[in-house]
Amino acid sequence: MTGDSAPTPSAPATRAPPVRYARNRAGRTLAWAANGTGPPVLRIGAPMINVAEQWTFPSERPLIDALSARHRLVHFDASGFGLSEPSPEPFQIDTLIDDILTVADAAGIDRFAFLSESGASLAAVRLAARHPDRITKMALVGGYVDGRARRGPATSPDPIRGLIEEGWTTGGGGLALAYQLSYFPEGPMDMLKAMVEREQTTASEAQMLRLRDVVNTDSIADILPRVQCPTLIVQGRSNAVHPLSEAQKLAAGIPKAELVVLDTANHVPLPGNAVWADYLDILLDFLAP
């Protein structure tokens, strides 16, 4: 990045960006898109709405407009999800890291800021540690250090996994909606209903279960001290899926990381939440060059 001041915000785009494709090391195509101009930001994480539909989606468009008014925002569908080529291989964190670098190279961004949400923090921290030359700064929203199965003594069966297993194939069904409510208990409800209907078409039940098993058993505790870039951690105070203690572990382990706690039970703030405006201000201030 160059320059000492943030670029002048531009008006929101009126046309959806084209979906582009790149090929990862395994030879499979990845769908990606870019919005806006300015210092690059690459985003990974929830919700899993394909890149062609994110731009029009009520839970996504306000964030896309806010970021792309000041940045070139790059986002993509990971291998086997959304518009990317189906993959016979099960989900792996290292494959996601390769996908991220593939898309960054295709977009022509050598160095970029990173916006990661939820379990994507597991890939984001690894990437920042392995490739400090690529990451200028990193925002982790709803992130965590240890997956559910790694948190203290033996835990009960994962209720969220059960909701996926029982309800994912029922279009717009109550169990799939309950899965979303566990992450976003404050809603807005109309967004959650639309979100789950789209996610059910973006990822299969088998993909979701494999993803859940990987993130439940993973840990990045030993990697945190190797992160060199400025890091912002944002967490909801009453987040029940990944509690505040996990964000505190992130902040304690990453050198000079900043933790911001928002008064919400939502895993990631959504438009319509009371903390939404504050969240946008915090995020844009941090990502500004």
UniProtKB/TrEMBL annotation:
Top-level taxon in the UniProt lineage: Bacteria
A molecular function (GO) term: hydrolase activity
InterPro entries documented for this protein: AB_hydrolase_1 (IPR000073), AB_hydrolase_sf (IPR050266)
Occurrences of domain AB hydrolase-1 (ranges): 61-270
Keywords: Hydrolase
The name this protein goes by in its record: Alpha/beta hydrolase
